[in-house]
Amino acid sequence: MEKVLVTGAYGFLGRYTAKAFSEAGYHVSGIGHGKWHKYEYNLWGIEDWHESTITFEALINLNKSFDIIVHCGGSGSVAFSYQNPYEDFQKSVQSTLALLEYIRLQGRPCHFIYPSSPAVQGDLGDKQIKENDPSNPVSPYGFHKKAAEELCFSYNKSFGLKVSIIRYFSIYGVGLQKQLLWDACMKIKNAANEIALFGTGEETRDWLYVKDAALLILAIAINEKKSISIINGGSGIKTTVNDTIQLLIKLYNKKVAISFNQKVKAGDPRFYHADISVAKELGWEPQVGLEEGILQYVNYFKKLQND
Fold this sequence. Notes:
NAD(P)-bd_dom_sf, UDP-glucose 4-epimerase, EC 5.1.3.2, alpha/beta, UDP-galactose 4-epimerase, domain 1, UDP-glucose 4-epimerase activity
């Protein structure tokens, strides 16, 4: 049985990734922050949980070797990178370096899979983004993801490590309690007549349901033969923020108007639209459509809020 280590397995993408590997027959270990009981992490397919910051010393103390390491830990917020750039660097870059060095010293083959972001490429305009498009980050978050990717390239070229980088666009789904959909649901719940949101509403997002995101990682682990690769993780469909929120309101079944303040948060992308042809070559494609996924999310939110 192949052994997988999922960092950040307590988190949103990490949990679903652990479960996907477990259901496929892998032995899954987890490391990161988060306190939960054995029966809780077992429900997500995690056999053993190690509560720790992801450092080289913590990895050595595991006293284990792995066939696959998926680095779901680290920063996941542009806003956080502006507020705490040093800590964001530690979470994104230093943790990646620790894992790569751990694999190098492990002395046996190990596939390193790194969920990254198109923030590495910056603002490319309203176009379908390919993996080989230019890279010009516009936020600390994007620069730190780029630095982590460069470490991956370095360890592949210098030491022969097998590395796959996934640039995820807009992951959402049951369990997510931050970002646009969560904030919008909270406003809809509390609104009398209208909700106000940042931006113009014409920004686009490429939504990918979290189960599909986790299954992409699994497909890469099974089918990717290249020693170094970059793969976009998205649906391949762009949806404006306005259309997304209109759908959210419809499925919430509440009559609420929307206004946009015409302001843009620093570092936020204007347009996200993924070219997913590389991912499809690995035998993967999204299974959950946007309306189905948002309905599941609305039902989850309402149950959580007793609404």
